Every structure is written in C-alpha cells, then in structure tokens.
Amino acid sequence: MRRDNRRVPGLHLPRLPGVVLLGGLLAAPLAASAAQAPAPTAAPPRSSTPSSSTPSSSTPSDPGPDDPSLPQAADEPATVETTAPAPEPLTRPTPPADTLPKAVVDEPSTPASEPPPPADGPKDPNQPPGYADGFHFGSYGRVIAGGDATGRPGRDADIVARGSRLDESNYAELELRREDYWKKTGAYTRIVATAAFANPFFHYNGQFAAAVALRNLYIEETGLGAKGLSIWAGSRMYRGDDIYLLNFWPLDNLNTIGGGLGYAFGDGQRTSIRVHAGLNQPTDPYYRQSVMRSPAHNQFGDTEVRLLDRQKLISSAKLTHLWPLSGTGGVKGIVYGEFHYVPGGQREVEDKLYEDVPKDAGFVAGGQLTLFTGERSTYLTATGRFAYGLAAYGEFNAPRQLRPDRKTTGAYEMMLTLSGNWERGPFAVMAGGYYRQFRNASKSLDFDDVNEGIIIARPTVWFGEKAGLSLEGSFQAQQRGVTFESAPGVFKPVLGTVGRAGIIPFVTPGGRGHFQRPHIYLMYVFTARDSAARSLYASDDVYARRKIDHLIGVGAEWWFGSTSYFRD
Amino acid sequence: MPRSTLWPRLTALPLMLALPIMPACLHFDTLDEPITIETHARDWRDEVIYQVLVDRFHDGNDGNNSLLDRENMARYHGGDWRGLEDKLDYIEELGVTTLWISPVVKNIETDANVDGYHGYWAVDLTRPNAHFGDLDELRSLVRAAHDRDMLVVIDIVTNHMGQLFFYDMNLNGVPDIQLSGTGARPQGSPVPDGFDQSGFTHLTEYDPDFNPIGIQAFTSLGPAGPAPIIFPYNAATGHITPAPAIFARAETYNRKGRTFNYDDPQQLLMGDFPGGLKDVDTTRYDVKVAMVDAYARWIELSDADGFRIDTVKHVEREFWRYFTQRVRQRLDKQGKKKFFMFGEAFDGNDALVGQFTKNDPPTPEELAVYAKEKDPGPTITGDQLDSAFYFPQHYQAFRDVMLDAQSTDRIATLWGNKATNYGTVPPALSAGVVPYKALVNFMDNHDVARFLYWAAQNPKDNSAGRQRALLHNALLLLFTAQGIPCLYYGTELEFRGGNDPSNREDMWRPLPYLGETKAPPAYDTTGPTFQFVKKLTTLRSTYAALRRADAKVIYSTAHTGDESDAGILAFERSGGDSNNYALIVLNTNQSHASSTKFEATTMATSAPPGAALVDVLDGKNTAYTVAGDGTLDLSLAPVTGMLLVPKQDLK
C-alpha cells in the first residue's frame, strides 16, 4: 500500500543543553526509552509546508503607523497573527492624497511615510510600516533545544494531523520587502521575498547545508486602476486565519505560483472579494514521469523526456464581510471555495507500453464566522470546510487510494473547527479544536481513512509585563479504518487517544498578550498515549512502547515585520 | 459587540469543542459489525467451484496496490478481495456457486524477482495479505457471496512456509549463491545430475539439495556439523519475523534442503519445496496445534466454508488426521458444519492422491503423543480429508483423452477405481459426502498449462473451431462427471496461457476469442464459451442427476483409429441420491464421426425400452428412443457430445 507522508516532519530538537538545563529543574520521574522511529503518517494534510509559517492576518493592513484608527499597542496585540480581526476595513485603503509622500517621483520612491520613532525608543517591531517607504525586513522564527527524558531528540508526539505546536520543529522565515508609491498611476507596489529554513540547522548537525524554500516571491499592486483593487502575481503563501495552538490554517492555506485579484467594496471596505488561480506540480509520479530516450538525429547517449508532465490548477475565491458591533467589536463572515483540476496524460508502464491517466477535479466549500471584541485579541472563530475529490488530498499531495478508474471520485475531507482567545488583566486563555473526517477514494476502509479530533487549551498568567506562565492541555483521538483484535475474536476499529499537558514559563519584552512576541521560554510537556495510539507506530518505535513521554526544552519564538502580519 | 454580551458566548467554547469528538462521531460502519459464523453449505456435490487467483481477477481497491508490475507475470498485478466482490455479478451469471480464493495470509513480498502474488509463500499466518485487502474486505467478500447463496473456499498451505531463512552452510553469516557449470548441455541428452535445463547448477544457501541428515556446514577445514539457519530481516521484501512465534524457531522446520526426488518418501515429506519454501516439521505436536489454531481462526474471522489444501502429499497422514478432525470439531462447536476440505496432490498416481481421503487409523505411537501432551478433544480417529483435487483425472481424462484422443477405456478404468483408491465413508462432522463421490474435478488450474494452450498444439487440427470444440467437449465432461466441477478463472473467456506463470492472466485484459482478432470487453458474458459454461451450469442446476446421482460408464473403447466407435465414452448418472437419470455421450475422436456401436455390440443403457431421451445440449432438444432391448445407437460428429435426459424430465 503506498502511503504519502502527509505529516510535517517530526521535531528533532538539539539534545543539549536544553535537556541538561531543564533536567535539573524538573523533579518528575523520567521514562525510559529505546530506539527511535519516524512518527506515523496522518492523512491528509492541511498544510503541505514543512512547518508552519508565519501566522497570518485576517485583518486588513492599515495605512500606516500614524493612522489614528489603528489599535494601539497597549491594548492590542502587536501582531495580528490570529483570527482576531481588528475593526479596521478589510483591505488596505488607498491613502488620501494629503497623506501621500511629499517627494513623489516617477520612479519607485524611497520611503516617504516613515513612521515617527516612539519617543521612548525604537518603534514597535510589529507596527505595520507605512506604504511606499522602501525596504523592510520581517521574520518569523522558532528554535527549540530539547529532548525527551532519555536524551533522545524531541519529536512530534501527536497522532492527529494537527496537534500542539510545542513540539513543532525548528523553522525560520526571513522576509525582504520593497514597497513603493508610483506618482504617475497612484498605485502602490509591494515586492515580497520570503526565504524559509527548516530543521536541522547548522549548529545542530554541523552540516554546512540548509533546507531552504522560497515561500514568497511576488508583486502586488494596489490601487492600480481602481480604488480598492489589488492585483498580484508570483509565488505566494495564500492563507487566512489560523489556530495558533495547532499551527494550523483550517479554512484556506494555499501555496501556488499564480496570480489573483482583490477588491474591497465601498468606502468602508467592509466587504471584499479575492480570487486567485495558481499552478503547482508536486514531486510525484502522479504528476510527472521522465524517461530516457535516444537523442535526436542519431546522437550518442540518452536524454530525458518527460512523458507525463501535468500541473495542478488551483483556484480560489473568498468573500469576506465585516459587521461592526458596538465598541470595537464585530463579526466577520467568510465564504470560501476552491476548485482543483489536473488534466489527463499518459505514462509509460513498461518499455514503450503506455497507459492513460485520467483528468481529475475537486472542490472545497467552506465558511468562517468570527466574533471579536477588538480588545486584546479576544475572539471566537468557527469554521466549516468540505473538500471533495482531488481537493480532499490538499494542494501539495498526490492522491492515493484511488478508484479503480484512477480518479479521486468519492474522496472527501470534512472539518469543523472552533478556536478563540480571551484576555483580561494578567490572565488569558486560548483554546482550539477540530473534528475531521477523511476518506480516500477507494471504496474500502483502510488505514488512511480517518476520523480524528483534538481539544487544546492554553491558560496564561503574566507576572507583570515581562514574564508569564502558560499551561497547556490537550486531548486528541484518532480512529483509523482498520481493526485490531481487542479481545479474542473481537475486532474494533483502532481508536487511539493521547493526552498531553505542558507548563511553559516565558519572558517577553513586549508585554502581555498571547500574540505578543518575542518569547523565550522553557517547556515541559507530558504525553500519555493508550495502547491503540501506540499501535499506530511501527514495531520497535519507542512510541509503540511508551505509555508516557516527556518533552523538555528551551525555545524562542518571534515574529515581526512580515507581510503576512499586516498586509492582507 | 460589547464585551459583556460577547463573553457568555465565549464561555460556551469548551462545550462546543467537546462536541466534535464525541464517540458517536468516530464510527466506521462495517468495522463495528460483530463476527459470527454459521453453516451455509448444503450438499457440496451441488456446488460448482470457480478457482480465482485473486491478484489477477479484478483490482477493486487502489489502496492496497503496492509495487505493482502488471507487465511482469511474476509480480503483483493488483487484484484484491474488493475487486472480486465487485465482480460477483459476473461470476454469478456464469452459474458457479463456490469461490476458491488464493491463500489469504501475509506472504513474503518478493524473492528473487518474483512476488508472492499467488499467496503460497506464507510468512505470517495471523495477518491477511494486505495486497488482497484487510479482514473487513475479506469478510465483506464472504458475506456478499453468502448473500448470493455462494460459498467461499480458502486456499491454505501447511506443508511449508515461504523462503524464510537460509542455511548458513559456510558459516559466514550471509546467504551465498553461486552459479556453476558451462551454461551448455548436450542437445538431446538428459539433463545431467545437478544441472537444470539451462546447463547451470545454482548452489545456493537458500535452497540446497536435500540431505537426509540435514543440511551440513562446511568450512575450509572440513565438515562443521549441521548448518545453522538464519532468518534474514528485510521489511521491504517481506522477510519479517514469522508468526505465530513457533514459526520463527529453527526446530519447527525439517531443515533438510530441497526435494529433488519425489519418489524418495523422506524427501517427499521432509524436503523443502522447490523455490526455497521451507518445509515445516508437521509431525510435531506443537506444529499441529499451531496450524489448527492459525487456520481455524481464519474461518472464525471470515465465515468461509471450506479449505483447499495445498501440497498434501508432502505432509504426513498423521498430520491430516489431527488437523482435519480438530478443525471440524472446533468449527462445529461454533455452528459451522459441513465444512469442506479437499487436498491437492500434484500427482497422477490415483492411489497416492486418494490416500488422504481414506479412513486411516492412527498409530499407537501417534496417540501416545497426544496422551502425553494432554491434547484436549476427542481421541483422534482415522478420518482425514473430505475430498481430493482429482489430479489423476486431469492427466488421464482431460489430457490423454480429451486432448490427445487416447482410448476412452482409461477413463472407465480410472473411475472404476474410485471406490478403491478414495475414501468410502464420510469423516465425522465432515461435509457428509462420501469422498470418492465428491472428488473435485478440473481441467486445468494455476499449476498447469491451460487446456487451450495444449489444444493449440494439436498436430492434426489446431483451427479455432477445433480448439473450441475440444474445450467444449472437455467442459461437458467436467460438468457432468460425478464429483464437484471446478473451473479455473478465465476458461470461460478462452484464456490459453502456458505453464506458470503464463496461465495466470489478468481477467481485465482478455484475449480475442478463438478465431478473432479483437479482444472482447473485460468480463464479457456474451462469448461462446461463457455461454456454453453458463448452459452447463444451468443444466447441472436443473437436473439433480448431474449433481447427486452415481456414475456408471456404459460405453468406452480402446479404439482410437478408424473403428466405428473410436473415441466414444458414455456414462449414466442415476441412482445414488437422485431419482433422475441422465446419459452423457462424448465422441473424443478428432478424425471422424463415431457411434455407440462396434460391430454387433451396441451400447446398452439402463433406461427403459422405448424411453425417449432428449439431447438438451443441441439446442433443438432432439429426442432419441431407447431400443426394445435397452440399447441405444447414437452417432456423434468428431469432438462433440450429448447430454440426454428422459423426455418426461425435460424442463
């Protein structure tokens, strides 16, 4: 049975000094372990990326740091990386003429609307920059050193497709951005290039090499031809609101090379629509097959010929509307859809023996409803999403377990999520959860047919403005379409459950707020898995043996200045 | 929204989060169904078995397709249980009533560039072959068959496992394979000892030749005692730890090397099966118990109705006594009665094949072992298998007579020895049929070239019409002879592959019918042979005499030349457990029409004088009248047959 690895790679944290450092701090008994093996696969992905990227913003960008409508840092998380929408318009408005840079030129201008530095020091790193102010640098990163109680590297212990982000792997993004205002056209240009680095890093394995991906490389024009209109083309992460605790974008999270349009209606711009279409070609024989052939005109040697070479077309449409309520609160509603298509083709089965591969298609339909107070990122978001056919497998996966006609007919993924955050004074609670069903296209139930869900919550208390303590608890369950013999002659579908609890003391220079970064933190995470959960791992995998696991580590997480935090 | 208004909604968060993963949501319909077994069989003589090589029948589930190579006959092609279930309409239309499916247990994946697609390379008797599906799909197939009043027979192997280990004969810890010889052998001469047809000898620690004292180790200093065996571990090729655990122990195996002389009883019983398939020591009590547990469990899990048992002649009869009786007793207690077990001995020796169906009492030493082991259950008796795969008939009737037009009296002789060579008493708790009356008849199977392969070699006439006539005449014999007919899949589509693996074609890639150039659609039900088989199964279902009556040859001949009766075979089906009568007449002569009369002797029937017998095969229901003296003179064109029933019985 072929199986694609749909989970992100397991966390492999540096063994020292985190273990040494924290081992002395923790009095808890530590479990023994043996060999290590990869985490089980889980179907299908919500993100095809090697790890989470920057949290995204569902909120509009703002015209600049001087805009009086901006929530101030003292009351609002400096980043807007969660589903918590601010009450601003949904798309970036074209700045009024009197706010435009004075020294506009015909060529791309250098920054003209530089934000004034705060009186008490450097500007808030998460304050959105003004437009047309030149080059910018942004970054997201998380680096964790740690391991289990026996000194083995830390590793993803979740059985569900999306579990706690505490054991996500090291990851960093470096974003360079250029923004310009064009006097001739009244348009703004944004060029974004985001390089992302995945584990392992040099200081862990000593290898002068890195897993690097260019996760953004696009140009977006705003206000070109019509107020409220934006147009972009290039390679782009294209995503909406996330569930931070799960490092998960439940409604929309696409990675394609293509282009799109956006339009915000009316002066208030509370209604917007965005459409996009892009292509990708995951590295898989489902999409591409190369064979060696004799070169033309009787030349020596051989040359590569692509017999099957098909791309997947993914298009999306998203309609968003904001209903302001009293005060700073509001309701945001989203209707969302995708269409996936892959053309037919032909591949070689044996030498000079060919078979047709059929075209295929799929769709996504979903929606989101968010309630927010507009104060301290307090919000509640619910999403529902149904993906069918080709789309059920996600944008970066080659479909597997097909129908006999090699199509994805009948495959689906259904997902319901709920997430939220509440903050008051020194206290806050963030929570999330989802229920998901995935069925592949084969009519029979098998290991990749999954029902699963998770509940996760993280209460936090701050001690003053500089430090705090978070606790995190989660419970997850996963059922797979295979049976095990629970008693002689009694077969039941595998239903694994995992409970996790963690304690995360941290320091933060940015003050209170669940979405305030950077953080430097310690963590201890306790994991308990039942026998069915253990059965999901291959024999000799330590997770197949351990009922209890410990994860001890020290880490850092930051985000600032990246497009996805403050540009829609 | 004011915070005071919003907040109560937020407090509902934990409750709302809890809802999605309530247990009711985590439900897979079919996987939760309880497993029960019951009796579905009635009289096994009523059945028509259809042998299916699962990997080659229909791919119904892409999810279990791993490492397929459909252009290589020795590799997995993707057929599975789901696919078989999807094609039950086709199978049912053919008129067959029992499926014989490939072994269901987990196999060695691949070995020496050949896959375990056939299912005979067991490595784990407790888990299903994932290429065919999972337990749920196997159960679903059996359930679907039962819903159509069809039965399911599972193929099993107890003689050997797959190539699980090698003999470390030079004690270097790794498997060594050498090739010796010149690669040439004198044309027209016998193959020299130690050489195969290629002129090479393969010296291999996987499959060394039989040594009666066990495979020995040698070093540069000389003999070094018994060679240790090493179980290599390679998950990718399926060389995993055998299960149940007893099969991971050296002492479970005879460890004497490969059988090369089947006439040597010791080699026959204790030698590895060619291909490195490791011979299990089936005289061990713990092995017997493990085999019963392993295979009875598959019936308890699947509710299947019988076993076809591989390579029975390579296993001691004491094993068959224990295995068959304990399996029957265990299943009977759970409500599964009339469980049918027939064994395959790939041999033309009728007495050898039949010995496993006879009542053969255990030896005192054998019983002493069970007493010492405090074996639970009734005392072992002489009961063995219910039936045998009738290989002698394959050779002496289908090959010699139906293909090669040799004298039909050899069929009469063969059938005449049934009651001598095969069991005459149904085993206790068995299917309840006298073994010699319920032999499993077949023309060809997965181990021999298909009938049409040989028909195409006919030196006199290999035209399409002649090939089909030979096939149809053989099918007439198959479906009317006493016993249980077994049709190898694809025969109905005129498949004509040669020896293994050429005879294991994909059902989804049919060949053009004989005499045609364009292949029919897959699973075509309109072809001439499909329709002929359907007609035969219908007639067999209609006329009980064809199923349950005794058989008596009333005309056979030694003539094969120009004689007037050359090639005639006629037998009646009457008496026994049926009140009806049928007369089958075949002309196997390929040169001329023949009649049931030679010189002054005319075929005598047991039908009453003046009785009108109607040929239900010719499409016109032509009637023939039995003469006043009970004789019947019939003339048949070359390679044709008649199926006559009394006019009053015509339906």
Short précis:
The complex is a heterodimer of chains A (568) and B (651). Chain A is mainly beta. Helix content of chain A is 4%, strand content 46%.
| Major sheet: arrangement of strands of chain B | 16-15-14-7-2-1-18-17
| Total tally of structural domains of chain B | 3
Mind telling me the CATH superfamily name of the largest domain in chain B? Glycosidases
**Ranges of chain A with pLDDT <50 over ≥5 residues?**
1-119
What percent of the residues of chain A sit in helical stretches (DSSP H or I)? under 10%
Mean pLDDT of chain A: 80
Uncertain stretches of 5 or more adjacent residues of chain B: 1-26
Distance between the termini of chain A: 42 Å
Q: Which structural class matches the secondary elements of chain A?
A: mainly beta
Class of secondary structure makeup of chain B? alpha/beta
The third-level CATH topology of the largest domain in chain B is: TIM Barrel
Radius of gyration of chain A: 25 Å
CATH topology of chain A: Maltoporin, Chain A
- Helicity level of chain B, as a percent range? 10-25%
State the oligomer: heterodimer
Strand content of chain B: 15-25%
Globally, the shape of chain B reads globular
What is the β-strand count of chain B? 28
- Portion of residues in beta strands of chain A equals over 45%
Task: Tell me how many strands of chain A there are.
Answer: 22
The number of helical elements of chain A comes to 5
Keywords:
heterodimer, A: 568 residues, mainly beta, Maltoporin, Chain A, 18-stranded antiparallel β-barrel, two-stranded antiparallel ribbon, 4% helix, globular, disordered N terminus, B: 651 residues, alpha/beta, TIM Barrel, Immunoglobulin-like, 3 domains, eight-stranded parallel beta sheet, six-stranded antiparallel beta sheet, 17 helices, 28 strands, 25% helix
